[in-house]
Design a protein that fits this description.
Number of helices: 12
Order of helices and strands: EHEEEEHEEEEHHHHEEHHEEHHEEEEHH
Number of domains: 2
Number of strands: 17
Largest sheet: 9 strands, mixed
Structural class: alpha+beta
Distance between the termini: 51 Å
Shape: globular
Pfam families: SUFU, SUFU_C
Helix content: 25-40%
Subcellular location: Cytoplasm; Nucleus
Protein name: Suppressor of fused homolog
Radius of gyration: 24 Å
Main location: cytoplasm
Family: Belongs to the SUFU family.
Length: about 450
């Protein structure tokens, strides 16, 4: 099958065949690419010439697709582990393939190569299918475009709200979770380390459970249900039932109990959100309210910018710690390239607010706005985070605005019971007493009704 070309949908370049590298050409073959090919050959020694989707005009030559190649292998599965036959897709381009700064900044062998990972995807092979469908390649290119444009990286346990069937059909598989690929091992290249993150297609109900509880917990449930993924988390686009339909006991016994006892490990999301200080009208163009509506402030010093960036970054870390860093915390070490933004930085972070506004201010009242999807996560914020003494942050996708909800016991918060609304530049914190959290959690359906009709865009 390696020499056959499957149908190509509009907007995607044609598959080409790739083969082993002749010894005499090894010095001309990009070392990063060669290292990943080596891992592929370890898994598929009998498929030295897999079908491959390639970007006709490479990204570094001005093309639209960041992934240079996506190889497609036929995996026979493993009957002993109850693993079905499937197609295995592997990307090339999120890591540094060339080491010459044409795409990624070369930072040496000790750190991460490029963004530090490549994407994989396992799709159930349908009966009679002789060639892999090519739509997963376009899906992977879409995710790669997001990573390159935002410079936000992915981690195992992350969820991706897609809101559309992954293959543009009528499938219920409309969202994704990410996990470590069960077969591929991290690769050390001359340009750094490359991990392999596997895309796992899930239904809306499964995505919501991952948000309310945690991604790793949901991945474990999916591994335990053969038709929903099995041990290697193979996506079946024809799956018509959620794992909760298949096993009704999973929702109350595993998910609800997990939320109740463990809370959620989702401590922040990127969102459309805006906050406004209603305590007083803006006095001049440098007032904090102008920050939220896009004025043109002066630039911060590099030190002040770094302090806010670090505070926002740590305030959104995906962990279960009930602590926020002090606002004057300093970055320790330089373990990643300076050109890469962490997952909370935006393009305008170099010019956030005037120097004299970088101070903590107590506010009397605030006005919050969220888009509807972000607002529906407020019960998660209450039940899964604040009720467990943790924090939850909305980070604006349109700028450096951030809104963090904290409860009593969150160390490092500058919003307190005495001063429940506090701002440090564009970062707002809202302190919610435990009693209010408990009351609102018990009536989350009413809260959603109010949010949908009163507060949300």
């Amino acid at each position: 099958w390696g020499g056959r070309v499957p149908p190509v949908p509009p907007g995607i370049s044609a598959p080409v065949a790739s083969g082993p590298v002749a010894p005499g050409l090894a010095s001309l073959f990009p070392p990063g690419l060669q290292a990943i090919y080596g891992e592929c050959r370890r898994l598929y020694p009998d498929q030295a010439n897999p079908l491959q989707v390639t970007a006709i005009v490479k990204y570094w030559l001005g093309g639209p697709d960041p992934l240079d190649y996506i190889s497609m292998y036929r995996n026979m599965g493993c009957a002993a582990q109850d693993v079905r036959e499937h197609w295995h897709y592997i990307s090339f381009g999120l890591s540094d393939l060339y080491g010459d700064n044409r795409v990624h900044e070369f930072t040496g062998q000790e750190g991460s190569s490029g963004f530090g990972f490549e994407l994989t995807f396992r799709l159930k092979r349908e009966v009679g299918e002789t060639a892999p469908p090519t739509w997963p390649a376009e899906l992977m290119q879409g995710l790669a475009r997001y990573v390159f444009q935002s410079e936000n990286t992915f981690c195992s346990g992350d969820h991706i709200s897609w809101h559309s069937p992954l293959d543009n059909s009528e499938s219920r598989i409309q969202h994704m979770l990410l996990t470590e690929d069960p077969q591929m091992t991290p690769v050390h290249t001359p340009f750094g380390l490359v991990n392999f993150l596997q895309i796992v297609g899930v239904c809306t109900e499964e995505l919501q459970a991952a948000q309310q509880w945690n991604g790793q917990g949901m991945l474990e449930l999916l591994r335990g249900v053969h038709v929903a993924g099995g041990p290697w988390l193979i996506t079946d686009m024809r799956r018509g039932e959620t794992i909760f339909d298949i096993d009704p006991h999973l929702q109350p016994e595993r998910v609800d109990q997990g939320i109740e006892t463990e809370g959620s490990n989702l401590s922040g999301v990127s969102a459309k959100c805006v906050w406004d200080d209603l305590s007083r009208p803006p006095e001049d163009e440098e007032d904090s309210r102008s920050i939220c509506i896009g004025s043109q402030p002066r630039r911060l010093s590099e030190k002040d910018t770094e302090q806010i960036r670090e505070a926002l970054r740590k305030g959104l870390e995906f962990n279960t710690k009930a602590a926020l860093p002090p606002i004057n915390s300093q970055r320790q070490g330089h373990d990643r390239p300076q050109s890469r933004k962490d997952s909370l930085e935006s393009e305008s972070s170099a010019a956030i607010v005037p120097h004299e506004l970088v101070r903590t201010r107590q506010l009397e009242s605030v006005h919050l706005k969220f888009n509807q999807e972000s607002g529906t996560l407020l019960p998660l914020c209450l039940r899964g985070r604040l009720l467990h003494g943790r924090h939850f942050t909305y980070k604006s996708i349109n700028g450096d605005t951030a809104i963090t909800f904290v409860s009593t016991g969150v160390e490092g918060a500058f919003a307190t019971e005495e001063h429940p609304y506090a701002a440090h530049g564009p970062w707002l914190q809202v302190h919610t007493p435990w009693l209010l959290v408990h009351t609102q959690t018990a009536s989350s359906a009413y809260l959603l009704h109010v949010l949908t009709n009163r507060l949300l865009w």
